[in-house]
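Sample log: Alpha/beta hydrolase.
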Amino acid sequence: MGKRPPPFSQILWRTSRVNKYKILKILGVGGLVVCFAVCLYAWRNLNYDYTGQKFMEKEGVRLGFKEKTYWLEGEREIYYLEGPDNGPELVLLHGQMVDSKDYHKVLPELSKHFHVFAPDYYGHGKSSKKAGLYNIKTIGDDLASFIKERVKATAILSGHSSGALITAYVAAFHPDQVKGIVLEDGPFFSTEKGRAEDTFSYIDFKNINDYLTNKPNMTYFEYSVKNNPMKMFFNKEGKDHWSQIVAEPALKKFKKDPSQLPVIWYYPPELGINRLLQITANQQDGTGDYDLQFGKSFYDFSFFSGLDQEAILRQIKCPTFVLHVAPPKETAPSYYTSEGWLISAMDEQDAHRVKELIEGSTLIEGFQSMHDIHDDLPKEYVKTLLDFKQSLNIKSE
């Protein structure tokens, strides 16, 4: 006789047991996938090249970039990166609080079409640090000497932010060294006394001045994080979201190792928070190469050496592209906050005024960037420089 089939209850028990194993297996695999995804996400955020240092250590060497120094009288030195000779000479002047490595996203492509020179101007990177050097005339004159002695050709200059101000000075007072200029979202007029005090950037300069003047018993990083003007965008309806989201986790990690600026693992590069923390690097804390005294020169307006920005722009006669970002999404359609603070380098009137003052210049507006077009929109920035090169009738190598 054949075996009797198991009772229905046993069939149910065996089936449920198999299903439990399948469910546990699925949950286990799913858990591993989630764990791997979180680890990959954290690794990317922690190892992202926020400053460009990793570019120089790896890709920069492969592409043929070399680190060099130009010495001037009075123990002044200008450190610079030089790329391979693949086209017309292009000098890149970075913005404030960063250095030449800030261009790391665009250097690979630019080096295919130009002979790139990217100096650190005084107070930044590996160039000289001395408060008496931090003015537009000294920096501009010495960069003109650098172009003459090291670049050894009339060059295209592209300057970002404070670098755009310096670029304009060089073009105005040393026209023989300049083939054409690109002014990338320069803070023209918004850095003048009587106007600057109502700008977002001036809050940072005031923080720097107050820190250096009052000498509080803390690092500048701690002081900056606690007083950063960005907190006005986080704190809504009287709630201190800035402290909870940014300040507290950053300060907690910084106190464990004050020699390193913190990177918060759960914030992706696109959010900009870790980038914001990294640009507080400064030589006073020993966390970077930016001299806070440079920022103070914008607070007390000594940077401009009594020179008038309008007069500088009127004196420029070379071909010029003026790049201007679109209104920040936080304040669109205006460049101002509801409290009246200018959050951008320029508003519409400033940008058009620059265009009108520089005879024959071209204004290009609408870049969807907060300020650093070359960092936020590297492909668009490179295309703009190639368009500028073409407008100068310079043939590709």
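Observation: The CA atoms of residues 84 and 321 lie 25 Å apart.
Observation: The mean pLDDT is 91.
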